[in-house]
From TrEMBL:
Keywords: Cell cycle, Cell division, Cell inner membrane, Cell membrane, Membrane, Transmembrane, Transmembrane helix. GO terms for biological process: cell division. Part of the ABC transporter FtsEX involved in cellular division. Gene3D superfamilies: 3.30.70.3040. Residues 198-314 form the ABC3 transporter permease C-terminal domain. It is a multi-pass membrane protein. It holds the Pfam family FtsX_ECD. Belongs to the ABC-4 integral membrane protein family. FtsX subfamily. This is Cell division protein FtsX. It is found in: Cell inner membrane. Residues 79-168 form the FtsX extracellular domain. The keyword Cell inner membrane applies.
Length: 321
């Protein structure tokens, strides 16, 4: 009977260790959050700086993604617009469009007659008085030519344009996607710049968290020395500071998400008003689920790394003499 009581008093069972470990970490996390609440102004200023630092690259990402979405609709325009001579009639143009579809460079051809072009001008608005003065339709027939993906490159499009201009019915041609390709290149440049800016600001977040944790270590130096004297392990001493860095990262990432989301909501009405002037509709999109998860995960990781660096460096100076 005494032996059984001795076995019961030896300590927790092996199956209870994970629960005890999780309970200790949860208690440390809550205590660390309580310490942040005890100093609301310094904590809020640190979180605000982290949030603004992370919101800048996130806002650039949202801007480029919205512009790419907008450009996706523009990408449906024809690559080359071939304007026929005024002498060509609809029958001749229809036969020419059918012949062009047999070319290996051409995927499809869309015929725009004079009447259709005139109706498009009327639909655009602003030309009513000028159109009333016109007795005969001066607009030419246009063939909107969509190349195959193999011939969609700029150099091959130029070769196709030169080939089309050699047709006897051709008057002049215009490449409609060249500006779009330049626009895509600009977006790629902006996206690369946002990644570089995010990396630089990430280093700034590391420095902010590291300096904040360093001050916290200096303020709790006596407490750390007493803990080491009673046998506390390095992991036990390091744990609350790591959770403080994680909380700073999580709160800063949440602040960045709120700033970006609020900016999108504030800009939606002006963007909708601008789109309505072009007889279009466009809905701004904010940080999606994946981007939000990446932002929060990166902010927490930066907080942990910054606090880890500060703890490993400054705890050496806090050892009892």
């Amino acid at each position: 009977m005494a032996t059984q009581r001795t076995r019961r008093r030896r300590g927790p069972r092996l199956l209870d260790l994970p629960g005890i470990w999780l309970s200790q970490h949860w208690q440390t996390a809550l205590e660390t959050l309580g310490r942040l609440r005890e100093t609301p102004l310094p904590s809020a200023m640190t979180v605000a700086v982290i949030g603004i630092s992370l919101a800048l690259p996130a806002a650039l990402y949202v801007m480029t993604e919205n512009l790419r979405t907008m450009a996706g609709g523009w990408d449906q325009t024809a690559a080359i617009s071939l304007f026929l001579r005024f002498e060509a009639d609809d029958t001749h143009a229809e036969r020419l469009s059918q012949d062009l579809t047999t070319w290996p460079e051409v995927a499809r051809v869309h015929l725009i007659t004079r009447e259709q072009a005139l109706e498009e001008f009327r639909a655009l608005g602003g030309f009513e008085e000028a159109l009333e003065q016109i007795t005969n339709n001066p607009l030419p027939i246009v063939l909107a030519i969509y190349p195959t993906p193999t011939y969609a490159a700029p150099d091959r499009l130029e070769l196709l344009q030169n080939k089309l201009l050699k047709l006897p019915e051709a008057d002049f041609a215009r490449m409609d996607t060249l500006w779009l390709q330049r626009f895509q290149a600009i977006l790629d440049l902006v996206q690369s710049g946002s990644l570089l800016l995010g990396g630089l600001l990430g280093v700034g977040v590391l420095l902010i968290v590291g300096n904040t944790i360093r001050l916290e270590i200096l303020n709790r130096r006596i407490e750390i020395e007493i803990s080491e004297l009673v046998g506390a392990t390095a992991a036990f001493i390091r744990r609350p500071f790591l959770y403080a860095g994680a909380w700073y990262g999580l709160l800063g990432g949440t602040t960045a998400w709120l700033l970006v989301t609020l900016s999108v909501l504030l800009l939606q009405q002006p963007v909708s008003r601008l789109a309505s002037l072009y007889r279009s509709e466009f809905q701004l999109s904010g940080l999606g689920f994946a981007a939000t998860g990446i932002t929060l995960g990166a902010s927490i990781l930066l907080g942990l790394v910054g606090s880890w660096i500060a703890v490993n460096r400054h705890l050496r100076g806090a050892e009892p003499q």
